[in-house]
Amino acid sequence: MLKMDKILNHFKIRKFKDNILLVTEQGNWVVLTKKEYDDFICGDVNSNKKLDDLGLLIDKTNFEKIVAKQKSLYSQLFCGTSLHIVVPTLRCNLKCDYCHSRAKSESVSGYDMDEETARKTVDFIFQTPSKQVKIEFQGGEPLLNFDIVKYVIGYAEELNKDKKKDLKFALVTNLIKMDDDKLKYLIEHNVGLCTSLDGPKNVHDILRKRYSGAGSYDSAVSWIKTIHEQYKYPLAALMVTTKWSLDYPREIIDEYLKLGFDRIQIKFLSNLGNAQKVWGDISYSAEEYLTFWRAAIDYMVELNVEGGVIHESITTYILKKILTDEPNVFVDLQSPCGAVINQLAYDCKGDIYTCDEGRQYELFKLGNVGQGKFNQVCTSDEASAIIAASVNDCFLCDACVYKPYCGLCPVCCYAESGTLVPKLAMNDRCKILKGMFDYIFEKLIFSEDHKRVFNEWAKQGNK
Protein backbone atom coordinates (compact mmCIF):
# COMPACT_ATOMS: atom_id res chain seq x y z
CA MET A 1 0.00 0.00 0.00
CA LEU A 2 1.02 3.66 -0.49
CA LYS A 3 3.12 4.93 2.40
CA MET A 4 1.70 7.88 4.28
CA ASP A 5 4.85 9.95 3.68
CA LYS A 6 4.09 9.99 -0.06
CA ILE A 7 1.32 11.93 -1.78
CA LEU A 8 0.01 11.70 -5.31
CA ASN A 9 0.92 14.46 -7.72
CA HIS A 10 -1.84 15.74 -10.00
CA PHE A 11 -1.75 14.02 -13.39
CA LYS A 12 -3.81 13.30 -16.50
CA ILE A 13 -3.87 10.19 -18.68
CA ARG A 14 -4.23 9.11 -22.29
CA LYS A 15 -4.39 5.53 -23.54
CA PHE A 16 -2.18 4.23 -26.33
CA LYS A 17 -3.32 0.68 -27.10
CA ASP A 18 -2.60 -1.29 -23.90
CA ASN A 19 -0.36 1.44 -22.50
CA ILE A 20 -1.34 4.42 -20.39
CA LEU A 21 0.47 7.75 -20.63
CA LEU A 22 0.51 9.74 -17.38
CA VAL A 23 1.55 13.41 -17.47
CA THR A 24 1.96 15.64 -14.43
CA GLU A 25 1.22 19.36 -14.35
CA GLN A 26 4.97 19.94 -14.55
CA GLY A 27 5.27 17.99 -17.81
CA ASN A 28 6.93 14.89 -16.35
CA TRP A 29 5.53 11.76 -17.96
CA VAL A 30 5.65 8.00 -17.79
CA VAL A 31 4.08 5.16 -19.74
CA LEU A 32 2.67 2.28 -17.71
CA THR A 33 1.26 -1.07 -18.67
CA LYS A 34 -2.34 -1.71 -17.68
CA LYS A 35 -1.21 -3.79 -14.69
CA GLU A 36 1.24 -1.12 -13.54
CA TYR A 37 -1.46 1.50 -13.86
CA ASP A 38 -3.98 -0.63 -11.97
CA ASP A 39 -1.42 -1.13 -9.19
CA PHE A 40 -0.76 2.60 -9.18
CA ILE A 41 -4.44 3.46 -8.83
CA CYS A 42 -4.84 0.89 -6.05
CA GLY A 43 -1.88 2.35 -4.18
CA ASP A 44 0.53 -0.58 -4.61
CA VAL A 45 3.34 1.49 -6.09
CA ASN A 46 6.20 1.49 -3.62
CA SER A 47 8.32 -0.87 -5.72
CA ASN A 48 8.00 1.32 -8.83
CA LYS A 49 10.89 3.75 -8.43
CA LYS A 50 10.26 5.54 -11.73
CA LEU A 51 7.06 7.00 -10.29
CA ASP A 52 9.15 8.73 -7.61
CA ASP A 53 11.84 9.82 -10.07
CA LEU A 54 9.28 11.40 -12.41
CA GLY A 55 7.34 13.15 -9.67
CA LEU A 56 4.09 11.21 -9.86
CA LEU A 57 4.60 10.52 -6.19
CA ILE A 58 5.81 13.39 -4.03
CA ASP A 59 7.83 13.12 -0.83
CA LYS A 60 10.61 15.03 0.84
CA THR A 61 13.26 13.41 -1.37
CA ASN A 62 11.92 14.78 -4.67
CA PHE A 63 9.84 17.80 -3.65
CA GLU A 64 12.51 20.37 -4.54
CA LYS A 65 13.09 18.71 -7.91
CA ILE A 66 9.36 18.93 -8.73
CA VAL A 67 9.25 22.59 -7.70
CA ALA A 68 12.26 23.29 -9.94
CA LYS A 69 10.47 21.60 -12.86
CA GLN A 70 7.39 23.77 -12.26
CA LYS A 71 9.54 26.90 -12.20
CA SER A 72 11.24 25.84 -15.42
CA LEU A 73 7.85 25.40 -17.09
CA TYR A 74 7.09 29.08 -16.44
CA SER A 75 10.62 30.47 -16.63
CA GLN A 76 9.60 32.80 -19.48
CA LEU A 77 7.58 34.85 -16.99
CA PHE A 78 10.70 36.11 -15.25
CA CYS A 79 13.00 37.04 -18.14
CA GLY A 80 11.49 40.19 -19.62
CA THR A 81 10.58 40.85 -23.24
CA SER A 82 13.47 39.68 -25.40
CA LEU A 83 12.08 39.39 -28.95
CA HIS A 84 11.28 42.71 -30.63
CA ILE A 85 9.80 42.56 -34.12
CA VAL A 86 10.47 45.77 -36.06
CA VAL A 87 8.67 46.55 -39.33
CA PRO A 88 10.81 48.93 -41.44
CA THR A 89 8.10 48.98 -44.11
CA LEU A 90 4.71 47.46 -44.81
CA ARG A 91 5.47 47.52 -48.54
CA CYS A 92 6.19 44.23 -50.23
CA ASN A 93 7.08 43.04 -53.72
CA LEU A 94 5.01 39.88 -53.31
CA LYS A 95 1.29 39.36 -52.87
CA CYS A 96 1.11 36.03 -51.05
CA ASP A 97 -2.43 34.70 -50.68
CA TYR A 98 -1.87 33.66 -47.04
CA CYS A 99 0.03 36.75 -45.85
CA HIS A 100 -0.97 37.91 -42.35
CA SER A 101 1.07 41.13 -42.15
CA ARG A 102 -1.26 43.65 -43.89
CA ALA A 103 1.45 44.16 -46.52
CA LYS A 104 1.01 46.88 -49.14
CA SER A 105 2.14 47.13 -52.74
CA GLU A 106 5.79 47.97 -53.32
CA SER A 107 4.77 51.06 -55.31
CA VAL A 108 2.68 52.86 -52.65
CA SER A 109 4.00 55.52 -50.28
CA GLY A 110 3.39 56.30 -46.61
CA TYR A 111 4.25 52.88 -45.19
CA ASP A 112 7.97 53.25 -44.47
CA MET A 113 9.50 53.82 -41.03
CA ASP A 114 11.55 57.03 -40.78
CA GLU A 115 14.72 57.61 -38.72
CA GLU A 116 12.95 59.42 -35.88
CA THR A 117 10.51 56.56 -35.42
CA ALA A 118 13.35 54.04 -35.72
CA ARG A 119 15.35 55.85 -33.02
CA LYS A 120 12.35 56.02 -30.66
CA THR A 121 11.66 52.32 -31.31
CA VAL A 122 15.19 51.30 -30.38
CA ASP A 123 15.12 53.57 -27.31
CA PHE A 124 11.89 51.88 -26.25
CA ILE A 125 13.26 48.38 -26.87
CA PHE A 126 16.29 49.00 -24.67
CA GLN A 127 14.03 49.75 -21.71
CA THR A 128 13.25 46.03 -21.45
CA PRO A 129 14.57 44.43 -18.26
CA SER A 130 15.65 41.39 -20.29
CA LYS A 131 19.36 40.77 -20.58
CA GLN A 132 18.74 39.32 -24.04
CA VAL A 133 17.50 41.56 -26.85
CA LYS A 134 16.76 40.20 -30.31
CA ILE A 135 15.60 42.67 -32.93
CA GLU A 136 13.93 40.88 -35.81
CA PHE A 137 13.07 42.77 -38.99
CA GLN A 138 9.86 41.75 -40.68
CA GLY A 139 7.51 43.40 -43.12
CA GLY A 140 6.25 43.78 -45.71
CA GLU A 141 9.68 43.16 -47.14
CA PRO A 142 12.41 44.72 -44.94
CA LEU A 143 14.89 45.00 -47.81
CA LEU A 144 12.64 47.63 -49.43
CA ASN A 145 13.67 50.03 -46.64
CA PHE A 146 17.18 48.78 -46.04
CA ASP A 147 18.51 52.18 -44.97
CA ILE A 148 16.28 51.96 -41.88
CA VAL A 149 17.40 48.38 -41.24
CA LYS A 150 20.98 49.65 -41.18
CA TYR A 151 20.02 52.64 -39.02
CA VAL A 152 18.35 50.43 -36.41
CA ILE A 153 21.31 48.05 -36.33
CA GLY A 154 23.84 50.86 -36.06
CA TYR A 155 21.92 52.78 -33.41
CA ALA A 156 21.21 49.64 -31.37
CA GLU A 157 24.87 48.64 -31.47
CA GLU A 158 25.86 52.12 -30.31
CA LEU A 159 23.36 52.10 -27.44
CA ASN A 160 24.50 48.65 -26.41
CA LYS A 161 28.01 49.85 -25.72
CA ASP A 162 26.50 51.27 -22.54
CA LYS A 163 23.54 48.90 -22.00
CA LYS A 164 25.62 45.75 -22.54
CA LYS A 165 22.71 43.52 -23.51
CA ASP A 166 23.13 40.20 -25.28
CA LEU A 167 22.12 41.83 -28.56
CA LYS A 168 21.18 39.84 -31.66
CA PHE A 169 19.57 40.69 -34.98
CA ALA A 170 17.48 38.69 -37.44
CA LEU A 171 15.83 39.50 -40.75
CA VAL A 172 12.96 37.73 -42.50
CA THR A 173 13.04 38.27 -46.26
CA ASN A 174 11.74 36.80 -49.49
CA LEU A 175 15.26 37.51 -50.88
CA ILE A 176 14.07 39.07 -54.15
CA LYS A 177 15.61 42.48 -53.35
CA MET A 178 18.81 41.01 -51.94
CA ASP A 179 22.13 42.09 -53.46
CA ASP A 180 25.77 41.51 -52.58
CA ASP A 181 26.19 44.81 -50.73
CA LYS A 182 23.15 44.17 -48.53
CA LEU A 183 24.20 40.60 -47.87
CA LYS A 184 27.76 41.58 -46.94
CA TYR A 185 26.43 44.18 -44.49
CA LEU A 186 24.09 41.63 -42.88
CA ILE A 187 26.89 39.08 -42.58
CA GLU A 188 29.26 41.69 -41.13
CA HIS A 189 26.73 42.42 -38.39
CA ASN A 190 25.94 38.74 -37.82
CA VAL A 191 22.26 39.14 -38.70
CA GLY A 192 20.35 35.86 -38.70
CA LEU A 193 18.53 35.30 -41.99
CA CYS A 194 15.26 33.50 -42.64
CA THR A 195 13.33 33.13 -45.86
CA SER A 196 10.24 31.36 -47.14
CA LEU A 197 10.27 28.33 -49.39
CA ASP A 198 7.02 26.45 -49.82
CA GLY A 199 8.62 23.61 -51.74
CA PRO A 200 9.44 22.84 -55.38
CA LYS A 201 8.63 25.44 -58.01
CA ASN A 202 5.23 23.94 -58.84
CA VAL A 203 4.17 24.33 -55.17
CA HIS A 204 6.00 27.53 -54.21
CA ASP A 205 4.80 29.63 -57.14
CA ILE A 206 1.08 28.90 -56.66
CA LEU A 207 0.61 31.36 -53.78
CA ARG A 208 3.92 33.22 -53.39
CA LYS A 209 3.52 35.52 -56.38
CA ARG A 210 4.54 39.00 -57.46
CA TYR A 211 1.88 41.63 -58.11
CA SER A 212 2.31 40.88 -61.81
CA GLY A 213 1.26 37.29 -61.17
CA ALA A 214 4.73 35.84 -61.82
CA GLY A 215 6.14 33.36 -59.36
CA SER A 216 9.01 34.08 -56.96
CA TYR A 217 10.69 30.65 -56.83
CA ASP A 218 13.56 31.35 -59.24
CA SER A 219 14.70 34.53 -57.47
CA ALA A 220 14.44 32.98 -54.03
CA VAL A 221 16.33 29.82 -54.95
CA SER A 222 19.06 31.77 -56.72
CA TRP A 223 19.85 33.68 -53.52
CA ILE A 224 19.46 30.60 -51.33
CA LYS A 225 22.18 28.93 -53.38
CA THR A 226 24.37 32.04 -53.29
CA ILE A 227 24.10 32.40 -49.51
CA HIS A 228 24.72 28.71 -48.87
CA GLU A 229 27.34 27.97 -51.49
CA GLN A 230 29.21 31.22 -52.14
CA TYR A 231 29.00 32.94 -48.75
CA LYS A 232 28.70 29.79 -46.57
CA TYR A 233 26.36 31.75 -44.30
CA PRO A 234 23.53 30.19 -42.24
CA LEU A 235 20.04 30.65 -43.66
CA ALA A 236 16.81 29.30 -42.20
CA ALA A 237 13.61 28.72 -44.14
CA LEU A 238 9.99 27.92 -43.42
CA MET A 239 7.10 26.79 -45.52
CA VAL A 240 3.39 27.44 -45.13
CA THR A 241 1.21 24.43 -45.78
CA THR A 242 -1.74 25.06 -48.08
CA LYS A 243 -4.02 22.59 -49.80
CA TRP A 244 -1.55 22.70 -52.71
CA SER A 245 1.16 21.23 -50.46
CA LEU A 246 -0.73 18.16 -49.28
CA ASP A 247 0.31 15.82 -52.11
CA TYR A 248 4.02 16.61 -51.84
CA PRO A 249 5.44 15.87 -48.35
CA ARG A 250 8.50 14.01 -49.67
CA GLU A 251 9.11 16.38 -52.56
CA ILE A 252 9.10 19.38 -50.21
CA ILE A 253 11.64 17.75 -47.89
CA ASP A 254 13.78 16.75 -50.88
CA GLU A 255 13.71 20.35 -52.13
CA TYR A 256 15.06 21.59 -48.79
CA LEU A 257 17.79 18.97 -48.75
CA LYS A 258 18.75 19.75 -52.35
CA LEU A 259 19.25 23.41 -51.40
CA GLY A 260 21.44 22.64 -48.39
CA PHE A 261 18.98 23.04 -45.49
CA ASP A 262 19.23 20.81 -42.44
CA ARG A 263 15.90 21.94 -41.00
CA ILE A 264 12.45 22.91 -42.14
CA GLN A 265 9.55 24.58 -40.36
CA ILE A 266 6.24 23.18 -41.53
CA LYS A 267 3.66 25.81 -40.60
CA PHE A 268 -0.03 25.14 -40.75
CA LEU A 269 -2.34 27.84 -42.07
CA SER A 270 -3.79 30.47 -39.77
CA ASN A 271 -7.06 32.09 -40.79
CA LEU A 272 -5.54 35.58 -40.64
CA GLY A 273 -4.99 38.47 -43.03
CA ASN A 274 -5.19 37.66 -46.74
CA ALA A 275 -5.96 34.01 -45.98
CA GLN A 276 -9.42 34.95 -44.73
CA LYS A 277 -10.38 36.15 -48.21
CA VAL A 278 -9.47 32.89 -49.93
CA TRP A 279 -9.80 30.45 -47.03
CA GLY A 280 -12.09 28.08 -48.90
CA ASP A 281 -9.61 27.84 -51.78
CA ILE A 282 -6.37 27.23 -49.85
CA SER A 283 -7.32 25.59 -46.54
CA TYR A 284 -7.85 22.00 -45.42
CA SER A 285 -9.22 20.04 -42.50
CA ALA A 286 -7.15 19.37 -39.39
CA GLU A 287 -6.88 15.69 -40.33
CA GLU A 288 -5.73 16.51 -43.87
CA TYR A 289 -2.92 18.63 -42.45
CA LEU A 290 -1.99 15.95 -39.91
CA THR A 291 -1.83 13.30 -42.65
CA PHE A 292 0.59 15.53 -44.59
CA TRP A 293 2.64 16.43 -41.49
CA ARG A 294 2.93 12.82 -40.31
CA ALA A 295 4.10 11.74 -43.76
CA ALA A 296 6.73 14.50 -43.76
CA ILE A 297 7.99 13.60 -40.28
CA ASP A 298 8.06 9.87 -41.07
CA TYR A 299 10.09 10.62 -44.19
CA MET A 300 12.57 12.79 -42.24
CA VAL A 301 12.96 10.05 -39.63
CA GLU A 302 13.58 7.55 -42.43
CA LEU A 303 16.26 9.84 -43.89
CA ASN A 304 17.90 10.33 -40.48
CA VAL A 305 17.99 6.57 -39.88
CA GLU A 306 19.79 6.23 -43.22
CA GLY A 307 22.37 8.83 -42.15
CA GLY A 308 20.82 12.07 -43.36
CA VAL A 309 20.47 15.16 -41.19
CA ILE A 310 17.27 17.17 -41.29
CA HIS A 311 14.70 18.01 -38.64
CA GLU A 312 11.43 19.91 -38.38
CA SER A 313 11.55 22.99 -36.15
CA ILE A 314 8.10 22.97 -34.50
CA THR A 315 8.33 19.23 -33.80
CA THR A 316 11.75 19.82 -32.29
CA TYR A 317 10.44 22.54 -29.96
CA ILE A 318 7.71 20.15 -28.81
CA LEU A 319 10.26 17.37 -28.27
CA LYS A 320 12.45 19.69 -26.20
CA LYS A 321 9.47 20.35 -23.92
CA ILE A 322 8.71 16.64 -23.61
CA LEU A 323 12.23 15.19 -23.42
CA THR A 324 14.40 17.88 -21.78
CA ASP A 325 14.33 20.32 -18.89
CA GLU A 326 15.49 23.21 -21.05
CA PRO A 327 13.42 26.43 -20.87
CA ASN A 328 10.83 26.76 -23.62
CA VAL A 329 11.80 29.31 -26.26
CA PHE A 330 8.89 28.75 -28.66
CA VAL A 331 6.40 31.51 -27.89
CA ASP A 332 3.49 29.77 -29.67
CA LEU A 333 3.51 26.93 -27.13
CA GLN A 334 3.63 28.75 -23.82
CA SER A 335 1.00 29.51 -21.22
CA PRO A 336 0.63 32.41 -21.10
CA CYS A 337 1.81 32.77 -24.68
CA GLY A 338 4.74 34.95 -25.67
CA ALA A 339 2.65 38.06 -26.36
CA VAL A 340 4.06 41.03 -24.38
CA ILE A 341 5.91 38.74 -21.96
CA ASN A 342 8.45 37.53 -24.51
CA GLN A 343 7.77 39.54 -27.65
CA LEU A 344 6.46 42.86 -28.89
CA ALA A 345 5.98 44.13 -32.44
CA TYR A 346 6.48 47.68 -33.74
CA ASP A 347 4.95 48.77 -37.04
CA CYS A 348 6.32 51.39 -39.43
CA LYS A 349 4.56 54.20 -37.50
CA GLY A 350 5.97 53.06 -34.16
CA ASP A 351 2.69 51.57 -32.96
CA ILE A 352 3.27 48.77 -30.45
CA TYR A 353 1.46 45.43 -30.70
CA THR A 354 1.40 42.39 -28.46
CA CYS A 355 3.00 40.17 -31.09
CA ASP A 356 3.66 39.79 -34.80
CA GLU A 357 0.26 38.27 -35.58
CA GLY A 358 -1.49 40.95 -33.50
CA ARG A 359 -0.37 43.72 -35.87
CA GLN A 360 -3.48 43.40 -38.00
CA TYR A 361 -6.00 44.11 -35.23
CA GLU A 362 -6.39 47.32 -33.24
CA LEU A 363 -7.48 45.22 -30.28
CA PHE A 364 -3.86 44.09 -29.88
CA LYS A 365 -2.36 47.58 -30.12
CA LEU A 366 -0.78 48.74 -26.84
CA GLY A 367 0.46 52.24 -27.66
CA ASN A 368 3.23 54.01 -29.55
CA VAL A 369 6.96 54.23 -28.97
CA GLY A 370 6.68 58.02 -28.74
CA GLN A 371 4.23 57.83 -25.85
CA GLY A 372 4.67 56.08 -22.52
CA LYS A 373 7.43 54.04 -20.95
CA PHE A 374 8.13 50.36 -21.46
CA ASN A 375 6.89 49.28 -18.03
CA GLN A 376 3.69 51.30 -18.47
CA VAL A 377 2.90 49.67 -21.81
CA CYS A 378 3.66 46.13 -20.65
CA THR A 379 1.65 46.41 -17.42
CA SER A 380 -1.33 48.24 -18.90
CA ASP A 381 -4.85 46.89 -18.60
CA GLU A 382 -4.82 46.11 -22.33
CA ALA A 383 -1.61 44.09 -22.12
CA SER A 384 -2.79 42.27 -19.01
CA ALA A 385 -6.06 41.31 -20.69
CA ILE A 386 -4.29 39.76 -23.68
CA ILE A 387 -1.88 37.87 -21.43
CA ALA A 388 -4.76 36.55 -19.33
CA ALA A 389 -6.58 35.42 -22.46
CA SER A 390 -3.61 33.27 -23.44
CA VAL A 391 -3.45 31.26 -20.21
CA ASN A 392 -4.63 27.70 -20.91
CA ASP A 393 -6.67 27.31 -17.75
CA CYS A 394 -9.99 27.01 -19.55
CA PHE A 395 -12.16 23.93 -19.02
CA LEU A 396 -11.11 21.98 -22.13
CA CYS A 397 -7.40 22.69 -21.57
CA ASP A 398 -7.68 21.59 -17.95
CA ALA A 399 -9.02 18.25 -19.14
CA CYS A 400 -6.23 17.73 -21.70
CA VAL A 401 -3.23 15.54 -20.96
CA TYR A 402 -1.04 17.78 -23.13
CA LYS A 403 -1.72 21.01 -21.22
CA PRO A 404 1.88 21.37 -19.90
CA TYR A 405 3.25 21.35 -23.44
CA CYS A 406 0.70 23.57 -25.19
CA GLY A 407 -0.54 27.15 -25.39
CA LEU A 408 -3.38 29.31 -26.69
CA CYS A 409 -3.15 32.06 -29.32
CA PRO A 410 -5.51 34.97 -28.59
CA VAL A 411 -5.00 36.41 -32.09
CA CYS A 412 -6.02 33.19 -33.85
CA CYS A 413 -8.93 32.85 -31.44
CA TYR A 414 -10.09 36.41 -32.16
CA ALA A 415 -9.71 35.97 -35.93
CA GLU A 416 -11.83 32.82 -35.94
CA SER A 417 -14.55 33.73 -33.45
CA GLY A 418 -14.42 37.50 -32.92
CA THR A 419 -13.76 36.98 -29.22
CA LEU A 420 -10.80 36.25 -26.94
CA VAL A 421 -12.74 33.42 -25.32
CA PRO A 422 -11.47 30.18 -26.90
CA LYS A 423 -13.90 27.78 -28.54
CA LEU A 424 -11.50 24.89 -28.63
CA ALA A 425 -14.02 22.22 -29.60
CA MET A 426 -14.35 23.97 -32.98
CA ASN A 427 -10.73 25.13 -33.21
CA ASP A 428 -8.56 23.54 -35.91
CA ARG A 429 -5.40 24.81 -34.20
CA CYS A 430 -6.33 22.79 -31.10
CA LYS A 431 -7.16 19.70 -33.18
CA ILE A 432 -3.87 19.94 -35.06
CA LEU A 433 -1.72 20.38 -31.96
CA LYS A 434 -3.48 17.53 -30.18
CA GLY A 435 -2.90 15.33 -33.23
CA MET A 436 0.79 16.26 -33.27
CA PHE A 437 1.18 15.40 -29.58
CA ASP A 438 -0.63 12.08 -30.09
CA TYR A 439 1.68 11.15 -32.96
CA ILE A 440 4.84 12.14 -31.09
CA PHE A 441 3.99 10.15 -27.98
CA GLU A 442 2.81 7.18 -30.04
CA LYS A 443 6.14 7.09 -31.84
CA LEU A 444 8.11 7.54 -28.60
CA ILE A 445 6.27 4.55 -27.16
CA PHE A 446 6.17 2.15 -30.12
CA SER A 447 8.92 3.08 -32.63
CA GLU A 448 12.58 2.66 -31.72
CA ASP A 449 13.68 4.52 -34.88
CA HIS A 450 11.47 7.53 -34.12
CA LYS A 451 12.49 7.48 -30.46
CA ARG A 452 16.20 7.60 -31.31
CA VAL A 453 15.79 10.30 -33.95
CA PHE A 454 13.44 12.36 -31.77
CA ASN A 455 15.95 12.31 -28.93
CA GLU A 456 18.62 13.53 -31.35
CA TRP A 457 16.33 16.34 -32.52
CA ALA A 458 15.61 17.40 -28.95
CA LYS A 459 19.33 17.75 -28.24
CA GLN A 460 20.15 19.81 -31.33
CA GLY A 461 17.00 21.90 -31.66
CA ASN A 462 18.38 25.32 -30.61
CA LYS A 463 21.80 25.01 -32.19
Secondary structure layout plus pairing:
Elements: E1 7-8, E2 11-16, E3 19-24, E4 29-33, H1 34-42, H2 49-53, E5 57-58, H3 63-73, E6 83-86, E7 91-92, E8 104-105, H4 115-125, E9 132-137, H5 146-163, E10 166-172, H6 180-188, E11 191-196, H7 201-207, H8 217-230, E12 236-241, H9 249-258, E13 263-268, H10 279-282, H11 286-305, E14 311-312, H12 313-323, E15 343-346, E16 351-353, E17 365-368, H13 374-378, H14 381-389, H15 395-398, H16 410-417, H17 428-446, H18 448-460
Parallel strand pairs: 6-9, 6-15, 7-8, 9-10, 10-11, 11-12, 12-13, 13-14
Antiparallel strand pairs: 1-5, 2-3, 3-4, 15-16, 16-17
Helix pairs in contact: 4-5, 9-11, 11-17, 11-18, 12-18, 17-18
Return the CATH class of the largest domain.
Alpha Beta
Give the CATH architecture of the largest domain.
Answer: Alpha-Beta Barrel
- Structural class by helix and strand composition: alpha/beta
| CATH topology tier name of the largest domain | TIM Barrel
Distance between the termini: 46 Å
Question: What's the quick description here?
Answer:
By secondary structure, this protein is of the alpha/beta class. It has helices at residues 34-42, 49-53, 63-73, 115-125, 146-163, 180-188, 201-207, 217-230, 249-258, 279-282, 286-305, 313-323, 374-378, 381-389, 395-398, 410-417, 428-446, 448-460, and strands at residues 7-8, 11-16, 19-24, 29-33, 57-58, 83-86, 91-92, 104-105, 132-137, 166-172, 191-196, 236-241, 263-268, 311-312, 343-346, 351-353, 365-368. It folds into three domains: 1-73, no CATH class; 76-284, TIM Barrel (Alpha-Beta Barrel), CATH 3.20.20.70; 343-426, no CATH class.
